[in-house]
């Protein structure tokens, strides 16, 4: 059996059941213990998560690792308290003071580092996209299955209480029968990081090179793919896509614009667009049904009812006859207090370790999104319609 067949036929065959919390049968932490975190990869993402960890009770960063010296220094400078510095992640994994690791390294290294960490007995928060390549995805799913440690994939919107609320509303019939998703993540910028020395070019700008990166699809659209899978409780059956290096002529290998359509069961289509030349609309997810639409951005959501809807008159703040809130073009804004999704994901990681629970964003849901990414890359790079292997 091919590795890609293994992912779909074996590990992910019962995908709808993966989103329910499950209590696991192991664990050593109590609610009052502090979980010591080692951050592997202290660039933009890894370094950016350290301040959140500083704010979370019973979590602390005790070690940082990066192969680029100034990135390591930057990461260490963000830690509240003392932390050890490592240039070799395997040395960090030997540190018995480290209970868990956050893996925020280039995409191509995720699987190897996460597997080594699980084998070392560490809990793992593995940044998205979970793994690059079908074989690497399968190997990481197997390692997580065989481990007594918690593995959480870093699709932070999966931890968002706002997004969870919207998913529950959709599943309870709020928008009726789902017919389509429209997703975009547009930016206006070349996506490059400054390089103080040319020798660091491929290490710092790894997102530009196919050897290390899945480009815009892996780095941005993977979040929205994870959301679509979550809502549908299924993986798409096929994908078609196109992209190109059409604007930034700077030696990059990954596309500067991508446009894909994924086909889910029952005729549901999901479109994904990502530009680097125009930021109109920025980040947006639309879930469209025959009774209405949910629109989401980073931290807000709106419900747009279908049909000849007139703004309802009702009791608002105790004033009879007041008009309910309505944002032109987007509908009724959801009034919903919630934590920053990245911080919430780390809080969930802590709680999953303490309570021995399977994360809602786990190795198998992460593998579903990663498989969708690889299918999309194959479709674009090989100019084919890429189908999901049939389940046996």
TrEMBL record:
All copies of domain Gfo/Idh/MocA-like oxidoreductase C-terminal, residue ranges: 169-380
Domain of life, source organism: Bacteria
Residue stretches making up the Gfo/Idh/MocA-like oxidoreductase N-terminal domain: 35-155
InterPro entries: Gfo/Idh/MocA-like_OxRdtase_C, Gfo/Idh/MocA-like_OxRdtase_N, Gfo/Idh/MocA_oxidrdct_glycsds, NAD(P)-bd_dom_sf
A Pfam short name: GFO_IDH_MocA_C
Stated name of the protein: Gfo/Idh/MocA family oxidoreductase
Protein source organism: Flagellimonas aurea
